[in-house]
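Continuing the series of single-chain predictions for the mutant panel. This is the parent chain; the variants come on the following pages.
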Amino acid sequence: MNNSGQAGAGVDIQIRGITSLNNVSPLWVIDGVPGDQSMVNMNDIETIDIIKDGATAAIYGVRAAGGLVMVTTKRGLGQKKPKISFNAYTGISGAWRLPEMVNSDEYITLKNEQWSSKTLPVGFSLDSLGKYETTDWMDAMFKTGVTQNYDLIVSGSGETSNYYLGGSYFKEAPSFVDNSFDKYSVRINSDYKITKWLKVGESLSMVYSKQDGINNEWGYLDGILRTLQ
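Parent structure:
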C-alpha cells in the first residue's frame, strides 16, 4: 500500500509483519540481481517467490532481514513464431471523506463565539459578514487523479535462441494537485545456444523516471492525509 500520497512512491510490503527489525522492507532480487520494485515492470514478471526464513541472510546478509522477493522475468521460450502483444489500462482516483469546510461568514461567527466564551473581546465585527471571499481549500488541493500504463512486448524463439523485448510507459497523476510521476522502462532478455555445451544470454533492464513530488519537508502532507483517514 502507498501510504505517502506521493506519485511514484513505492508500495509498502511487509513479509515478516510490522514487528520486523526496524520495520524494514524485503529485498528484491530480479533475475539474480539485488534491486528494488521500481526496477521491474509487473507485466515482465514470469514468477515471484517469497522467502521469509533465516536462510536469506546466509546469501544476502542483513539486506534480507525483512525477507526476500525473488523475481524471474519472462523469456521467449517455446514461441517458434514472433509474438507481439500490447497492453494498456487507465484508471481514476479521488480523495474521499474530505472534511466540510466552513465559509468566511461561518468562520467569523464561530471565532466570535469562541472568544466570547473566554470573556475575550470580540475579534471580528459583525459588519465583516459577507465582505470576505470564501476559498474551499480541500477543493483547491484535490482533483480527480489519473493513472495510465502502456506495454509493448515482442518475443520469440528459434532452435538455438530466444528473445524477449518489452517496453513500458507509466504515468501517475494522483488526486493531490501538483503531484505526478512518469516512468519509462525497457527490458531485453535473450539466450543463444552456441554449442551443445555452451549457452550465453543476458538480462538487461533500463529505467528512466521523473517525479514531480510534493514538498513535504515539514510534514504538512502527512498531517493532511492522517486527517482524511
